[in-house]
Amino acid sequence: MSNDPARPNIVLVLADNLGWGELGCYGGGILRGAATPRIDKLASEGLLLHNFNVESDCVPTRSALMSGRHPIRTGCRQSVPAGFPQGLTTWEKTLAECLKTNDYATAHHGKWHLGDIEGRYPSDRGFDEWFGIPRTTDETQFTSAIGYTPEVAELPYIMEGKAGEKSKNVQIYDLESRRLIDEMLVARSKDWLTRKVQEQKPFFLYHPLVHLHFPTLPHNDFKGTTGQGDFADSMAEMDYRVGEILDHIDELGVQDNTVFIFASDNGPEFREPYRGTAGPWSGTYHTAMEGSLRVPFIIRWPGQVPQGTTSNEIVHVTDIFSTLLSIAGSEVPSDRPIDGVDQTTFFRDPVGTKSPRTGFLFYIKEELRAIKWKDWKLHLVWEPKVNQSSGRLESPYLFNTVRDPKEESDILAFNTWVMQPMMKLKTEFERSLKYDPAPPDPLKQW
Description:
- It is built from ten helices and 17 strands.
- Helix 2 runs parallel beside helix 8 (317-328) and helix 5 (175-199) runs parallel beside helix 6 (230-251).
- The chain folds into two domains: 9-348, Alkaline Phosphatase, subunit A; 359-434, 2-Layer Sandwich (Arylsulfatase, C-terminal domain), CATH 3.30.1120.10.
- It has helices spanning 37-44, 58-67, 71-74, 95-100, 175-199, 230-251, 290-293, 317-328, 344-348, 419-434; strands spanning 9-15, 47-49, 52-53, 105-111, 129-133, 157-162, 168-172, 203-208, 258-264, 294-295, 297-300, 309-311, 315-316, 359-364, 367-373, 376-381, 392-400.
- By secondary structure, the chain is an alpha/beta fold.
């Protein structure tokens, strides 16, 4: 039943490229041209993390979220164009597949980016139904781009599908539908939630928003409302859409037994005019700077997670996988290394306990870029801005992220002791990689 406390409902809303510094509750809001009252209120009702960390771009983070494993293991190391092998192989077990074994109803409404061929769509990977886009929002610009024809690059579509059936195209995903899609996604989620509550099924709703991914274009109802341009208008819309889902959960009477998470998949966009901000942190996504690693994360779980709390303890996106399975009483796969750690105890008592995670390794594609351990950050490759890499460092840079949030003063010479725990973390992880060979995937095309 949807009110069984042993199997609480789960709603996971994931923004796209929302930087740490954009929301009011993270020091942005009206300072960034748009108040975010609904998400700010959500933060007051639960736990806000200052040190929630993700992977380098859309595909790596979403794969880590769905599998509990770093993309260096799963092969989901970067976003690639349509038609290329991409996304989670059939061997990986997704969060939705694991929850299905515990009789959860599951739905995906939003951006998938973990497979765009039959066998890899959400409805093939544990979701009862899905609606949204298989890849990315960049593609909305295709049909209006000079020289584009469908013969050279396939048309992007909004799609839908149900488990056991073939996914199908709904409409072309162009700039006009870009403005409408987040409204469409919320309508789908509201309808699905109503049906699942009526059926008295515990549910997992994964709702990956399209905002604020470029081209960052607001719905016409929000265009011009902030007076600060499309980006701020889109942020106002994003806040409103999250509020619509929250209100619907209240109307259905299931708030008290629903774990609600709002987070972002990556740090801010670096391209003008859609460039965002990570607040006090330097860098954007596609770098190993803190502005890439740290993104917003809020969890509300009435009666379980204390209200109005914040923490600077380290939590990683892979931890969502292990934590939600623990909360739902579902088993974590035991036949493969799982990088996520169970944060349930910490989430329930973020003041009296500490995160069981001390750090992690950060890769971009196949390259180990940085190691994060407690309040320390070691850069093995220095690329403070996208496409401005100075290459592998003979002497790595070490920063203290509390005293030097912008990573400006290398202090390795005075703190070489930090290399010991960091190298231990690196050695243990690389050893686990050596004994983690994935079997071949029958859907891989080449």
